[in-house]
Design a protein that fits this description.
214 residues, alpha/beta, 8-stranded mixed sheet, 3-stranded mixed sheet, globular
Length: 214
Amino acid sequence: MVEWIATSDLTDHSEAVRVMEDRVAAIHEGRASEAIWLVEHPPLYTAGTSADPRDLLDSRFPVHQTGRGGQYTYHGPGQRVAYVMLDLNRRGRDIRAFVGNLEAWVIDALAQFGLRAETRPGRVGVWVPRPDKPPLPDGTMREDKIAAIGIKLRRWVSFHGISINVEPDLSHYAGIIPCGISGHGVTSLVDLGLPVTMQDLDVALQASFARVMG
C-alpha cells in the first residue's frame, strides 16, 4: 500500500528533505510503507547534480543544492510538488524505466483535463506543444514545460519527485534557465486556459497512479 499525504501549508524545503530522508530510511528498514507526499513550497530554486552555475541568472529566491538528478528548477505557490518515496527493490531496479513511468503518470493525469502532454528524447519532464506561438529560429515548434522530474535513490528507495504547474507565477522562472533548456518556455494548467484547482489535480494524480504505477 502507498500512503498519500497532503500538506496544505507551504512547506519549508530543507524540512521536506529531512522528512523524506527519515521516511526513506524507514521504508528500507521495513518500518513504513511507500508514500506520495503532496506539498507546495515558498518561492525557491533548486539545483540538481547536473546544474550549471551559468544557468542561475538571478538568485532572487533562495537556492537549495539537492542531490536529485537534473539541473535548476523553480518551486513556488501554485505548483504541486509530489515527492515519491517508492521502493524500487520491489518495483524493479531500473532507473530509466522508473523515470519513464513517472512521466507516464503525469501525462495520464493531465489527460483527465483534456490536455495532451508529451515527452521528448533527451529532455526529462513533460511538455506541451505550442503551435499557437511563433516557432524557434530553425522552424521548430515551440514547446512549454508543464512538469519537471528529478529523483534521488538511496538503497533503491526513491525520493524527491515531480512538480506540476497548476497556477504558479511563471515570471519567477526568469531567474533561471529551467533544466538548462533555452528557447522553449514554461506553462501551467491555468496559463493554458484550464481552470484546474490543486485539489482537482490531486484527485487526478491519485487515480492515474493506480493505473500507471500500480
